[in-house]
Amino acid sequence: MGDSGNLEASIDRLLNEEKQMRLAENVAGTRKAATEILQLCFEAKDWKLLNEQILNLSKKRGQLKQAVQSMVQQAMEYIDQTPDIETRIELIKTLNNVSAGKIYVEIERARLTRKLAKIKEDQGQIAEAADLMQEVAVETFGAMAKTEKIAFILEQVRLCLDRQDYVRAQILSRKINPRVFDADTKKDKKKPKEGENIVEEAPADIPSLLELKRIYYEHMIRYYSHNNEYLEICRSYKAIYDIPSVKENPEQWIPVLRKICWFLVLAPHDPMQSSLLNATLEDKNLSEIPDFKLLLKQVVTMEVIQWTSLWNKYKDEFEKETSMVGGSLGDKAGEDLKLRIIEHNILVVSKYYSRITLKRLAELLCLSIVEAEKHLSEMVVSKALIAKIDRPSGMVCFQVSKDSNEILNSWAVNLEKLLDLVEKSCHQIHKETMVHKAALRP
Is the dihedral of CA 75, 81, 84, 85 positive or negative? Predict the structure, then answer.
């Protein structure tokens, strides 16, 4: 009882001192008195009184910004020393109420929100944790370190992915420009000019920029895996592969390069996929995994691939890929792989044949006539190639039909070439005649 009396007396004395300093606009004195009050409450382990005093001091008339900032920063140090979760949540909520709407403690509010979201997540309340994190827009915080901003947004993205809110995850991920990861961190930081915000140093637990790059692309792989966007997954793995720490360690880059190869083969044929495929084939590291180099060469070479022999060769390798960020290669990926091989074979046939029977096409693709027609029709609809099917005669024509203007233009070009040849021939004949006449003269 005596201790509580002493505590109240000490607090009353410090409150009077704080009032005098505040009215005198003495920043250092106000800050000192306010933080000492909090220290007394903490040492007495009176958490209820601590919360009351934080609220009480922050609501004082004409309270100085620096004093509120110091109080919030000091009280944040006590969070990890609370006796139980309920007390911890109560203290965080009190500090959140104090810092709400105050731009000079926005960074502290963001950190408090992250701590509260972590507690909610540990309790299994992922939806509540995600909602809490989304309330804070760190991209507008000028004084927050770049790495801390990125780490915060990535945490928002991760929680959205965990609750399977893929639309919001994509919106949040667009707040991060991938180019920011390529910035040179070794460059000397410029000193802020007068009037500019002073950027705070990131806390020690925030990962480096290259570690954040890896986390970002792992989250993007999870997002793209939801819609089976194989090319985007491949590009994300390529970005991870290009991280120096990954490239230096064969134990890390070999699994990543294997995944790049698989997703390149699974991606639909287009200019971007073709460019990535050729770039990957030129990678010297690919010789370390010869089977995958052979697989990519088969896809690049304009020759028909036998699906059964390919699947028998790579089936075990395909099933080994279980440590995927967005989940292992499942049955859907297996079906898509077969579809890509069929599409590749149809493109090969269209290069070598201008006209072919459906029966022969089906034989080359190792499919039934109905399946061959179905896959060909799908490729025509997706504008992957140009073809026409004459069903009564069972013929497929891969030639492009020309309109009347193109036909006339081609005739005009041919006539121009013909006239040019005639003119050259006449010139040569005239030249020979002149030479012959000159030789006959005495």
Answer: positive
d(CA 311, CA 313): 5
Instruction: Name the amino acid, one letter, at 99.
Output: S
Question: 161 Cβ partners below 8 Å, 6+ apart?
Answer: 169, 219, 222, 223
The set of residues, in sequence order, having a beta carbon less than 8 Å from that of 322 and lying 6+ positions away, is 328
DSSP code of residue 356: E
CA distances from 281 to 260, 273, 417 (A): 11, 12, 42
HSE-up (13 A, CA, CB side) for residue 146: 15
Q: DSSP string spanning 358-416? A: HHHHHHHHTS-HHHHHHHHHHHHHTTSS--EEETTTTEEE-SPPPPHHHHHHHHHHHHH
Residue 2, pLDDT score: 41
Q: Is the pTM of this model over 0.85?
A: no
- 3-class SS shares of the chain: helix, strand, coil, % to 5: 70, 0, 25
Question: Residue 200 has which token pair?
Answer: 């705070």
Handedness of CA 28, 34, 40, 45 (dihedral sign): negative
DSSP annotation of 207? P
Give per-residue pLDDT as tens, 10-68: 888 888 888 888 888 888 888 888 888 888 888 888 888 888 888 888 888 878 888 88
* pLDDT value of position 1: 37
Q: Which of 45, 5, 4, 36 is nearest to 18 (CA)?
A: 36
CA distance 358 to 349: 12
What's the N-to-C CA distance of the chain in angstroms?
146
Tokens for 34, please give them. Answer: 């306010």
